[in-house]
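Need tokens for this chain, all 341 residues.
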Amino acid sequence: MLAGDAQQQATAEALRRALARRSGHDGEVRALRRLTGGATKQTWRFDWVSAGGVEPLVLQQIPAPVPGAAGVPKLRAAHEAALMTAAREAGAPAPRVRLVLEADDGLGEGHVTAWVEGETLGRRIVRDAGFAVARARMARQCGEILAAIHRVPLAPLAFLHTLSPAQELAQYGELLAQCGLTRHAALAWSLRWVEEHLPGESQHALVHSDFRTGNLIVGPEGVRCVLDWEIARIGDPMQDLGVLCLRSWRFGGAGEVGGFGAREELYAAYEAASGQPVDRERVRFWEAFSNLKWAIACARRGLATRPDGRPASLELAAVGRRMEEPLWDLMTLAAPQEHTR
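Here are the structure tokens for all 341 residues:
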């Protein structure tokens, strides 16, 4: 038996025991397969077959955070599960949590959620004819979904970190220093621009922080589910609107919102659903800052190495070369304000 087959069989058996123990009903894990994608998580698709029928589910195994690691903190698996449940209760289409893994399950940290059928590949969402109706609706839907996320009650979510723009800038500055690129002219200028344009205090709300095309499950009718909640925090709600407009995540689509829609439609839907005005200058700041963060992330990927010092992979090296694209976008966003000074 191959090592991969042995791992898959062991995972299936551990899942079976965990699901049977929580549900009180025995069953069988079938069609278990590893899904691609995700920088750190291991994601598995499978069917849980029991007396109640066949239930398609997803297992995500999430590495425990490294104490003292630089960068934006990520949620523990149990906290992410609790957050997704709270978001669903507030009306946002987060995954439905079926099970949170415990130490006795032998699968590490993670959770099991209901499978949601649909497309996540950004290029298909913004280009394929089968999603034409969805694209016409998605800017409005995203405005309504973000309004739901931002009204999630914070009191039960005491585990969430609160990050100010200055704190987040400091974290990314530290990540850049670890890369040894602090003397890179475009990166240094971008860091300084963000520092000089840090906004003042804002309303605090739950912020997804990575709400974008690629983290949405989309069907022909529009958005079905919002994925990847692990870097959610308490912060400025305008951040989510800025991230959604990032050109790097438009996948070649024409719409400024995620490659599929218009800003004014997004803003109008958000204001109608939330009762709060959209601060366009703050959205522009977060769009610019998010370009800097993605540029630093590209640099880190491009410089990643194996234990022997060799480049980690050709794929990561190729991602590193894309650093210039978000830096150009940041400078383009900064230009109107710079020209009026």
